[in-house]
Amino acid sequence: MEISNVDLNLLVVFDALLKTRSVTQAATRVGISQSTMSYELAKLRRLFDDRLFVRMGNGMQPTPRAQQLAEPVRRALDIVNGEVLRNDHFDPLTSKRVFSLWMSDVAELNFLPRMLNMLAADAPGIGIRTVAVGRQDVARAMAEGEVDLLIGFFPDVKSAGIYRQALFDHTYACLVRRDHPRVGDAITLPQFLSESHVVVKQGRSYEVVERFLEEQGFERRVLLVTPHCLSVPFIIAESDLITILPVSLARAFGQFATLKTVGLPFSPPVYNIKQYWHERFHDDAENKWLRTRIAQMFSSSSVPILS
């Protein structure tokens, strides 16, 4: 017997007959006429080559073959109803889901503290795991569910099948030592150009500001180039060097007692922070819930940036 040749609705008919032991009551239960139910019973008998139900007294009694089929048919219907046809409902209050997020440094500083507070209040069982994969693997990782959401400035992510949503604009600031001998609460353009600089060569946001400075014809003395932004505040604190950082990073580091953030002496470039997800999970209830909450918290051009 090939499953492709079986009308699976017959399993519903069989189960109704088994529960009611009556053609009339089974027809009512399934929502068909009594004559149609009799026709369906005839099809069941041909399918299994067994009478299945025989009339005894005022009811229909199952044959030994029908009794053998009873439990497997119920299990099959339970699986179809509970797993195949279930409503894809997601309850954040009871979920134990761990979401995998790939975030830039700026995204982690802006998103994680507020996101974790939101989860503690609204979804206490949900966890967050930040991951990183090679840029060339981002589409594959998202398609395979290794990365639920990608959040940050990723202008190279343009693969077909990846959705994106703009969240907020971001820009840059200058980080200096608090008792810098030449830079007070502000910095002039001549001061900015004459000071020695640390350049953080990490991520696409670095490329945006470096390209901007080049286009403006601003020439600086770059004393240090590093791919590690976490070492920068310690270097700045022990020297007279200055640096340009995304404003979130600059203000976060500016909370150190030995550092301060000052505005740049020109209008810096602006770039957009987005969240990305794969079309495979576009209608997934869990993924949709998380990205909706993120958008509610951060989708605004006036989002406060670690002030």
Give keywords:
D-Maltodextrin-Binding Protein, domain 2, 307 residues, five-stranded mixed beta sheet, rod-shaped, alpha/beta, 3 domains, Arc Repressor Mutant, subunit A
Question: What can you see in these coordinates?
Answer:
With 307 residues, the protein is of the alpha/beta class. The chain has three domains: 3-84, Orthogonal Bundle (Arc Repressor Mutant, subunit A); 98-169 and 271-298, Periplasmic binding protein-like II (D-Maltodextrin-Binding Protein, domain 2, 3-Layer(aba) Sandwich), CATH 3.40.190; 172-262, D-Maltodextrin-Binding Protein, domain 2 (3-Layer(aba) Sandwich). The protein has helices at residues 9-20, 23-30, 34-48, 64-84, 105-122, 138-143, 189-194, 204-216, 232-237, 247-253, 285-298; strands at 53-56, 59-62, 98-103, 127-130, 149-152, 162-170, 172-177, 196-200, 221-226, 242-246, 259-262, 271-278. The strands form three sheets. A five-stranded mixed beta sheet has the order 4-3-5-12-6. A five-stranded mixed beta sheet has the order 9-8-10-7-11. A two-stranded antiparallel ribbon has the order 1-2. Helix 1 (9-20) crosses helix 2 (23-30) and helix 2 (23-30) crosses helix 3. The longest helix has 21 residues, at 64-84. The model is unreliable at 301-307 (pLDDT under 50).
Describe the secondary-structure layout.
Elements: H1 9-20, H2 23-30, H3 34-48, E1 53-56, E2 59-62, H4 64-84, E3 98-103, H5 105-122, E4 127-130, H6 138-143, E5 149-152, E6 162-170, E7 172-177, H7 189-194, E8 196-200, H8 204-216, E9 221-226, H9 232-237, E10 242-246, H10 247-253, E11 259-262, E12 271-278, H11 285-298
Parallel strand pairs: 3-4, 3-5, 8-9, 8-10
Antiparallel strand pairs: 1-2, 5-12, 6-12, 7-10, 7-11
